[in-house]
Design a protein that fits this description.
- By secondary structure, the protein is α+β, with helices and mostly antiparallel strands.
- The chain is built from twelve helices and 37 strands.
- The N and C termini lie far apart (59 Å).
- The radius of gyration is 27 Å and the shape is globular.
- The longest helix has 21 residues.
- The model has no long low-confidence stretch (mean pLDDT 96).
- The strands form seven sheets. Strands 5, 6, 7, 8, 10, 11, 13, 14, 18 and 19 form a ten-stranded antiparallel beta sheet that branches. An eight-stranded parallel β-barrel has the order 20-21-22-25-28-29-30-31, surrounded by four helices.
- The chain folds into three domains: 275 residues, Distorted Sandwich (Beta-galactosidase, Chain A, domain 5); 215 residues, TIM Barrel, CATH 3.20.20; 109 residues, Golgi alpha-mannosidase II (Immunoglobulin-like, Sandwich).
- Bound molecules: (2R,3S,4R,5S)-2-(hydroxymethyl)piperidine-3,4,5-triol.
- (2R,3S,4R,5S)-2-(hydroxymethyl)piperidine-3,4,5-triol binds next to loops.
Amino acid sequence: MTGHHQLHLRAGGVSLVLDVGAGGPPAVLHWGRDLGTPLAPSSAWVPAVPHSALDVAPRTTMLGSGLARPGLLGSRHGRAFAPQFDEVVVDTVADNEVRLRCVAHAAGLSLATHVRLDPHGVVQVANTLRNEGDAGYQLDRLGVVLPVPAYAVELLDLTGRWSRERHPQRQLFDRQGTWLRESRCGRPGHDAPLLTVLGSAGFGNRSGDVWGAHLAWSGSTQIWAERRPSGLVMLGLAELLEPGEVVLGTGEEYAGPVVHAVFDGAGLDGLSRRLHRSVRSRSGHVRKPRPVVLNTWEAVYFDHRLDRLTALADVAAEIGVERFVLDDGWFLHRRHDRAGLGDWVVDPQVWPDGLDPLIRHVRGLGMEFGLWVEPEMVNVNSDLYRAHPDWVLRPDEATDVLPAEWRHQQVLDLVRPDAWQHIHDRLDALLAQHDIGFLKWDHNRDLVDAGHAGRPAARAQTLAVYRLLDSLRGRHPGVEIESCASGGARVDLGILARTDRVWASDSNDALERVTIQRWTQLLLPPELVGSHVGPTTAHTSGRTHTLSFRGAVALFGHFGIEWDIASIDPEERAALRALVATYRTHRQLLHSGEVVHADHPDPAALVHGVVATDRSEALMAYVAVASGATEIPLPARLPGLDPERAYRVSPVATGGDPVTVAHAAPPWLEAEAFTATGRHLGEVGLPMPVLAPEQALVLHLQAV
Ligand code: DGJ
């Protein structure tokens, strides 16, 4: 195909206009608001040629533009470094979906591109490169690059560390240059950007033009934003490949991860609304009500005793828990974190009659049973390592040198078919032999110097893990799986294509969690984000919080408890029971509605919530994260409600009353009943009580 050929994909108020005719990969003429009609005439929408530049303006394709950071990088021992794609074949164009192939005959490469604009306005792009030549082609990068208008002058992405994942960082992005985020650790990492957002000046939760992109990949990643001297602004995303990691033999292909890219004209909530709808529309998305979880980790750690755990299960069932998850410590030699990983058999010393007495007890109480595993790892102090010391990813298979340990563990080489099969069969047997409804699948270290057969192996390992999950899910379709990685170091839509929720963080400190959950939910709807009520004094930070505050935070996710509730007093137990009931009452709303955040002027307070898709009800939280800047709290403007409807507003029990300072509560809160229109609540805002710092008020709004 030669000449310009325009394709106009339109959905949900978004247009993606592609030029697919001029030889190379698709060029993006527009990605943003719905244009209604195609750009005409096609030939007019090409830039001018300035002085001292190429005589023909380079196309801005999904592999980059001119001398910008390229989406495709590689060579055949130095040759074929600049493939000239001289043939384009459009395979299919239907329902906002395009599949096309570009061939670079002289370079011996072909590129298949699949672009889809889903009904929610989310663009999904994936590139696959095939070596058509006679010699090996070393691929160093195959990504997706998307142009963004130059008025997107602010950049927001996320970063973090263990127990403090997904904190936003925002900067002006009006200078020329490249902002590059890389993960080289075989997982997205605690510091993963998650969603990289470029937006118009001052964009907020509810305003501004914003473009965001996410890479659905659970291995190493590279994500960049670039502003060129030419004026072009681009977002790029690719798997990070180490030198020599991918060398394509004749006829071999590399399939790059899917990029999910999203535009909205109404700020970050607009992006999340589209992404949440898109994620919820996946065929494998969890549809059953999200059960109340009790996870044993912060309750008992490695102290596994049947009597202690059955007592915990009794209390759990009594307060309304629906899924009891036995965490780390149940398998051979696992009395601490220095031994046992790899030995996936029940430790007879701790469990002389196996796990079944506990499982029967839990099931008898009407709860589901869940189990912790960490299948990708091995301790050197394990029977598995002693039998197979060569089953470890390492820089060079010819030596005994292992990568540095991390939590006393190494990464099992699942690229080896024998190691993969062994782990697969052990997990398969566990699931076949026991009545297990849920696996918490952990991954507690970065991949460092991780090689297989002397070559970098993060990619092959990631694909092996995907195969492992896919096979086990195929064989045990009723089992749900959680992606955990020392908390939230593996949160991405690649792992979530084969798991049912993520563990957002090892921090159960509610104050930390407010931020971690808000920003995890920039991409993920609340039902996919595990959020537990932890102990009164958080184990990871030493902060003490009321149950009311911990409950108000944990409600807005997939709710659970991670606390030794067998040791709490009857009053607290009753309050927890009420909190569990609150979650169960509202989970249908929380897990199907639209997530909203106000742009509140005082950074000491957060206003967020979930509004039913038909706007008949909502659950809103006013969270005091610090002491307020004003004497009287600024009114909370509640976003997302139907302006024409009246709502009855009532406080919700989250495990006791929030602590108001000197009873400084507004009259509406003390009245019997209070009703106001969505317009008044959204525009004027609701007067708030003076809350002590680290307190929250949760409100239910019911249209009347
Ligand atoms: C790290 C996880 O994030 C924790 O929740 C817990 O499962 C521990 N691993 C167990 O070792």
